[in-house]
Structures are given as structure tokens and as C-alpha cells.
Amino acid sequence: MNNIICVITQKGGVGKTTTINSIACVLNKQHKRVLLIDMDPQGNLSFSTGSEFESGPTIYNVLRGDLKARDAIQRCSMADIIPSNILLSGIDLEFPGKNREFLLKNALAPIKDLYDYILIDSPPSLNLLTVNALSASNRVILPMLPDIFSLQGIALIYETIEHVRKSCNPDLEIAGILINKYSRRSHLHKEVYGTAEMISEKLEIPLFKTVIRSCVSLSEAQSLQADLMEYAPRCSGAKDYRDLVAEIEENAAKR
């Protein structure tokens, strides 16, 4: 099975792009072949990797059929990437017909076996781009903050995943709910984690044991377009993401 993992959320600011970027940095240190796909028109992942996304080829050109995926790949310090820019936001209007849910899956088919992992960053909304990311993936990670609003969003995301399973991708699995910006000293955060455990059991979806603690080095590394494992390998964020990757691989091996 190809390791094609997407990260989705219905709102911004929950660590979606940070999760993709940091996982890629860990896998790069393990000498894994990694391809990043930026499906977010904001292009935050593209910026954080230092790719050329304003004038170079992007995933928009690939989905339109102007380029093969192979010809849009750029090499960055921590991984290969097909970047994105604001033009991607109009893809809904350009493809109103049938089978538009499989644009990304079809584009990746010729190159997916070249990589150990393909990581897809989806937009902070549940739209055609998100459905394409889910249709192309084997597994999905659901990041959230330790607050009540993120908990409420999990149910909505779950409905979207179930729709994609029934209509586009019956083999799609949920790798887990990931709690970001967690403080072990916060009573509220502990309560939210406990509620997340109950939601996990009710919906029968995994909750990662690993939590990502608040860590300024995570934001600094992305702002400086640096590899986290080079920039601050001993910070709490780097340790947490190493633990997360180990948990992802351990869970996958059990299935």
C-alpha cells in the first residue's frame, strides 16, 4: 500500500500545515522519499518549504492537465513538493462535470510508486479540493486544538470522510485525531483530551496518544523556511513529531 496521507480540517490555525511540514522533516531524517502536495490556495506549505510557487509550475497546472505531475515537482531541503498558489481557489468553477473528485488521484497515479510517502495539505474548508485530497489518500490525519470548537468540528469532518468513503474511496482510513498546541499543565486541555477520547470511541476512529505541545521553534522554522530537524532538533516540537511518526508507522504495521 502506498503511504498517501492527507491532513484536513474545517478551520485554519489548528496546525495543519505545521503537521505536514514537520512530519516531512522527520521522514527526511529517516532517508524516506517524500513528496508534498500543497492543495491549499493560501500556499503556506509552499512558502514554508522555500519552493517557487508564484511563477513556477503548481498543482493548479497539474489538475488542469497543462502539466504532468512529474514536471511540476520541485526539490526542497526536506522533501520534493508540488506547490500551490491562489489560482487553485478557482478549480471548483473550472471543473463542474463528472469525475472531478479524482483529478488529484489520476494525476498522482504515474508517480506515486516513486515515493515512500506522499503528504497532502488540504485547505481549511470542506470543498472540492478537500474531496480530491481524500479521494487520493490511503489515510487521513485530523488535527485539532484542545478547545470545544475543534471538538465540534470533528463530527462535521467525519461526515465528509464517510461521504468520500461511500462515493469515491472505500479504502480510506482515519489515521487519527491529533491534538496540537497542548499544555499538560492546563486543566482545560486535559478535559478536552478526555472528551476527544469519548468522541474517538463513539465514532470508532483513533486518537493519537502523541500530542503536540506548544513550541515556538515550530513557527520559527516555518517562517525561516528551515528544516525543523536541523533548526531545533532538541525542541519539544521536534520530539513530539518524531513520536508521532513512530506512532503512525506502528499503527500502520498493525493493520
Number of strands: 7
Assembly category: single chain
Structural Rg: 17 Å
**Major beta sheet, specifics?**
7 strands, mixed
Tell me the series of helices and strands, N- to C-terminal.
EHEHHHEEHHEHEHEHHHH
Q: Report the span from N to C terminus.
A: 11 Å
Q: What does this 3D model show about the protein?
A:
With 255 residues, the chain is of the alpha/beta class. Helices cover 45% and strands 13% of the residues. It has helices spanning 16-29, 44-48, 59-64, 69-72, 91-94, 103-108, 128-136, 148-167, 187-203, 216-223, 228-231, 236-254, and strands at residues 3-7, 34-38, 74-75, 80-82, 117-121, 139-144, 173-179. A seven-stranded mixed β-sheet has the order 3-4-2-5-1-6-7, sandwiched between helices. α1 crosses α12 (236-254).
Would you summarize the structure shown here?
This protein is α/β, with parallel strands linked by helices.
What are the salient characteristics of this protein?
255 residues; alpha/beta; seven-stranded mixed β-sheet; globular
